[in-house]
Amino acid sequence: MGLPKNLSFLRIGTGGQTLDIYLDPLCPFSYKCARSLTENVLPQVREGGKYAGKLQLIIRPYPQPFRSAASTQFHSDLGVPVSSPGAVSSEQRAAWNTLAAVTTAWTLGRRSRHRDAQPVELTCSHYFSTYPVEALLCFGADHPEQWWDYLLGVFSVQESFFNKPVHDKTPAQVQEAYVKVAEDVLAKAGVASAKEDGKKLYEQLQVHQKENGGSVMFEPLKYLIKEGRQNGIHFTPTALLNGLEDGSVSSGWGRSEWDKWLEEKL
Question: For the chain, which residues make up each domain, given as ranges?
Answer without folding.
Answer: 5-68+124-265
